[in-house]
């Protein structure tokens, strides 16, 4: 069996359709209701997802690691990690192959990126260039949250102590995957940016993670 994990904060308006689309494609679904103040959790359960409820937000990293643990215990062979707010297209999920980690890239050939701030897009590309310099890995999208993990990959990554918990957590996961010899590849996606805002803490986390990777 294969499954999908989703962390959701106040996504009652989009979560049911996403769960439905995934289940139509044969995926089991685990949603982490990360401290929502709307009906996200109830809506996800009614749509057929297994829901983990948080009384207050835990953040992206901690929530998804918790979902990973559920995926491992459920015996899923492959686990899709996908956004709850409509940024990711379910139709982009690739055919599973003999790769441990697949990254949904917004910047590869045949990918598309629409909406959002121009500066966030430029920043993500710049971060990818800096990380390619530090690691010699030629990935185009280090911060993408659209990913596919093999069971072997989740078992290798689930018990690591990560330094950050929001978007830079995705960078840490990808770096740890390569450090542990897991096979990693990318696939193009169609991305619709949401209305997320920039916070100085994001830059602080990025600098912290980049220096850690560069120096180690």
How would you describe the overall organization of this protein?
With 216 residues, the chain is an alpha/beta fold. The chain has seven helices and nine strands. The chain has helices at residues 15-24, 40-47, 60-74, 118-135, 151-157, 168-179, 200-215, and strands at residues 3-8, 28-34, 50-54, 78-81, 101-105, 112-114, 147-150, 184-188, 190-192. The strands form two sheets. A seven-stranded mixed sheet has the order 3-2-1-4-7-5-8, with helices on both faces. A two-stranded parallel sheet has the order 6-9. Helix 1 (15-24) packs parallel to helix 2. 40% of the residues are buried. The mean pLDDT is 93.
Q: How would you briefly describe this protein structure?
A:
By secondary structure, this protein is of the alpha/beta class. Helices cover 40% and strands 19% of the residues. The model has no long low-confidence stretch (mean pLDDT 93).
């Amino acid at each position: 069996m294969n499954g999908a994990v989703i962390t959701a904060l106040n996504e009652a308006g989009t979560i049911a359709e996403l769960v439905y689309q995934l289940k139509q494609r044969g995926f089991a679904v685990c949603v982490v209701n990360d401290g929502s103040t709307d009906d996200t959790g109830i809506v996800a359960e009614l749509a057929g997802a297994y829901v983990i409820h948080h009384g207050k937000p835990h953040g992206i990293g901690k929530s998804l690691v918790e979902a990973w643990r559920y995926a491992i215990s459920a015996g899923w062979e492959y686990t899709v990690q996908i956004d709850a707010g409509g940024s990711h297209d379910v139709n982009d999920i690739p055919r599973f192959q003999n790769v441990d980690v697949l990254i949904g890239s917004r910047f590869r050939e045949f990918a598309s990126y629409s909406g959002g701030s121009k500066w966030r897009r430029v920043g993500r590309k710049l971060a990818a260039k800096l990380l390619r310099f530090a690691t010699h890995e030629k990935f185009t999208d280090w911060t993408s949250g659209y990913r596919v993990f093999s069971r072997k990959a989740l078992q290798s990554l689930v018990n690591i102590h990560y330094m950050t918990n929001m978007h830079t957590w995705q960078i840490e996961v990808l770096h740890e995957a390569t450090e542990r010899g897991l096979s990693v590849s990318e696939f193009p996606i169609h991305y619709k940016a949401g209305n997320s805002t920039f916070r100085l803490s994001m830059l602080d986390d990025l600098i912290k993670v980049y220096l850690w990777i560069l120096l180690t």
